[in-house]
Amino acid sequence: MSRDVRELILARLLVICQNLDGIKAAYRNKDEIGEDKRPAILIFDAAETTTVGDQYVPKRGYGPNLVAMAPQITILLGAGAENVGPALNAFRLKLLKEILVDGALLGLVGTNGQIVYGGCDTDLMRGRSVEGDMQIMITFIYSLLPQDL
Predict the structure, then answer these.
(1) What's the start-to-end Cα distance of the chain, in Å?
(2) Number of domains in the chain
(3) Three-state SS for 70?
(4) In this structure, what DSSP letter does residue 20 have?
């Protein structure tokens, strides 16, 4: 039976974002979000790479590959949001707390994998329009088992 861990992680991530306190909507691979749906979280499937290390020994094509998946996660407050910096930081904290300890996600990455917070980036810079956007960098490392495909 096929088991796409990548898809399972992305689906679970969307559920977590949809249920985050204070978020009106969360979407996956959707670009245009109206002001009436904000604060919102956008998730884009983005990239993944394999992490083939020195310990990798192929077993006739059935050896596990460790995969590092880094979806793009963006918190959108919207134009005119009050206390933009503190509001973004509060959502960041809530989101990280949910993702990093979620039992379902931890089960999906397994004992060989991990969930790694890599930082954040905002649109809060001089000379930019301040709409209160923050990208959260999280990498999910999981085993890709050929026999599960």
Answers:
(1) 7
(2) 1
(3) strand
(4) S
SS (H, E, C) 114-141: EEEEEEEEECCCCCCCCCCEEEEEEEEE
Q: pTM of this prediction?
A: 0.88
State the CATH number of the domain containing residue 38.
3.30.2000.10
Q: Is there a contact between 141 and 67 (Cβ–Cβ < 8 Å)? A: yes
Determine phi and psi for 119, rounding to 5 degrees: 115, -170
Distance, CA of 6 to CA of 29 (rounded, Å): 15
Q: What is the pLDDT of residues 33-65, one digit of tens each?
A: 999 999 999 999 989 998 665 555 555 555 667
The answer to whether residues 84 and 132 touch, using CB atoms and an 8 Å cutoff, is yes
Name the DSSP class of 63.
S
In the chain, at which residue ranges do the beta strands (DSSP E only) sit?
A: 25-28, 40-50, 65-76, 114-122, 133-144
The answer to whether 133 and 78 have CB atoms below 8 angstroms apart is: no
Which residues are CB-neighbours of 50 under 8 A, at least 6 positions away?
A: 65, 66, 67, 68, 144
- Domain residues for the domain of 119 are 5-148
* Residue 33, both tokens: 């979000």
